[in-house]
Amino acid sequence: MVVLAAMGVTAYGWNMGALRRGTIFVLLSLALGGMAIGLGKGDFASLILSAAGIAFLCVLGIRSPLGIDRYQQVELQWRGKKIFVTALVDTGNTLCDPITGACVLVVGMDVGMRLGISREMICDPITAMAQKSIPGARLVPYRAVGKPGGMLLMMRMEQVRLGGRIISPMVAFAPEVIGRNEGYQALAGGTV
Predict the structure, then answer these.
(1) Strand, coil or helix: 182
(2) How far is CA 175 from CA 36, 110, 148, in A?
(3) By C-alpha distance, which of 159, 186, 192 is closest to 172?
(4) Which residues contact 55 (CB under 8 A, 6 or more apart)?
(5) Does the pLDDT value for residue 63 go beyond 70?
(6) pTM of this structure
(7) The pLDDT of residue 190
(8) What's the rounded Cα separation, in Å, for the pair 9 and 31?
(9) For 93-127, what is each residue's pLDDT tens digit?
(10) In 9, 51, 153, 184, which residue has its Cα 20 to 30 A from 79's Cα atom?
């Protein structure tokens, strides 16, 4: 049990989400060990019980994804406007502010336009920044699977809350709508 616990801490870290993942890992390891013993002894009762335990743990993991919630509510405040969107917490999203190293929330053009940022600024941020000074705006380099890298317009919001907690105020604006038919309008990094 101590070795399994140490493996769980090594693999998942030390927080509440890791505790849940580690518990599922330990229980699955014990169930699989029970199946191996049952096969070795020809004890079909323990084999059936172990298989039922594994099926239950798999259903538990599928119905209630492990780790942080997949979707979280986001509150953006900027220039007197407050809007709410839903973010997909994407562990593959590693976009960070190159100056501070903080994770950057990525929203689509539709969210930017709701905040009062023009389509032209979002679609061509380099030209927009070259033509006029935009207070609090910067460019952030990005790469995405299946798309050439480029620059996104990034703005410092007055406040950003993800799941009720305050996170980095930096928000990048993608030149397309994010999660059009998927129920979310923003991407949050897995390490926020």
Answers:
(1) coil
(2) 53, 9, 13
(3) 186
(4) none
(5) no
(6) 0.63
(7) 56
(8) 20
(9) 788 888 888 889 999 999 999 998 889 899 999 88
(10) 184
